[in-house]
Amino acid sequence: MTPASVARALGFLTRLPVPARFFGAGEVALSDDAGSFALAGALIAVPGAVLLLIGAVFGAPPLMMAGIAVLATIALTGALHEDGLADTADGFGGGATGERRMDIMRDSAIGTYGVLAVIASVLLQVTALGALAETGVIQAAFAFVAAHTASRAAMVWHWSKTPPARTDGVAAASGQPPTTAVNAVLVGAGIVLALAAILATGVVVTALAAVAVSAATAGFSRLSGRLIGGHTGDTIGATEQIARSVMLVGLAMAA
């Protein structure tokens, strides 16, 4: 994990303009930068966390500021993961066979399953973050950073532990993250969780939420393998949304 790999990860995960010098003369596979996804996730959460703190200074309603924080990160990422969740929900919910499910997922149109999945994800994140902000805005800001970090680690785990479901697409072209990248992202997530989530809600609560995220990620990965034979770029994005929602809800419920 280097500054250049973090910059490249941010370039992929967000709409931030990353200078060409970070990419060097040759092409670097996205999977090789997967080890930096956890730190990139923490950085992506910072603007939303800052907005939470600013809102508290001016006495803004916690739930409203939670909504603004979540929307700010969606704008920063260009709804990259929400799009993956929507496509996955449409495919898994509307297809009778693996081939048909992937055909639906390729379609840029969003159906009922996709709309409901995104609404549910955003609603859970906003209400959970709002509940945390009610008990303490600083704790909520730390929890927000922790959730974004854990969710990026979860997507790398899903990516590495399931085979590509098809031969085309970004995920297939990038290959699977090497063991070193998986280890790096897990260690990075662990460090950030120790610094952020534990400061926000305590060791026991953080551990319970992390277990819930692990279970949800493993369960979804197994479902993805059964329904389409592995992962796609859409299921990687869906994993991020599921993990982030579970982390925030777990922290809010156990806090």
TrEMBL record:
<keyword id="KW-0472">Membrane</keyword>
<comment type="pathway">
    <text>Cofactor biosynthesis; adenosylcobalamin biosynthesis; adenosylcobalamin from cob(II)yrinate a,c-diamide: step 7/7.</text>
</comment>
<keyword id="KW-1003">Cell membrane</keyword>
<feature type="transmembrane region" description="Helical">
    <location>
        <begin position="180"/>
        <end position="213"/>
    </location>
</feature>
<keyword id="KW-0808">Transferase</keyword>
<keyword id="KW-0460">Magnesium</keyword>
<dbReference type="GO" id="GO:0009236">
    <property type="term" value="P:cobalamin biosynthetic process"/>
</dbReference>
<dbReference type="GO" id="GO:0051073">
    <property type="term" value="F:adenosylcobinamide-GDP ribazoletransferase activity"/>
</dbReference>
<dbReference type="GO" id="GO:0008818">
    <property type="term" value="F:cobalamin 5'-phosphate synthase activity"/>
</dbReference>
<protein>
    <recommendedName>
        <fullName>Adenosylcobinamide-GDP ribazoletransferase</fullName>
        <ecNumber>2.7.8.26</ecNumber>
    </recommendedName>
</protein>
<feature type="transmembrane region" description="Helical">
    <location>
        <begin position="37"/>
        <end position="58"/>
    </location>
</feature>
<dbReference type="Pfam" id="PF02654">
    <property type="entry name" value="CobS"/>
</dbReference>
<dbReference type="InterPro" id="IPR003805">
    <property type="entry name" value="CobS"/>
</dbReference>
<keyword id="KW-1133">Transmembrane helix</keyword>
<feature type="transmembrane region" description="Helical">
    <location>
        <begin position="110"/>
        <end position="133"/>
    </location>
</feature>
<dbReference type="GO" id="GO:0005886">
    <property type="term" value="C:plasma membrane"/>
</dbReference>
<comment type="similarity">
    <text>Belongs to the CobS family.</text>
</comment>
<keyword id="KW-0169">Cobalamin biosynthesis</keyword>
<keyword id="KW-0812">Transmembrane</keyword>
<comment type="function">
    <text>Joins adenosylcobinamide-GDP and alpha-ribazole to generate adenosylcobalamin (Ado-cobalamin). Also synthesizes adenosylcobalamin 5'-phosphate from adenosylcobinamide-GDP and alpha-ribazole 5'-phosphate.</text>
</comment>
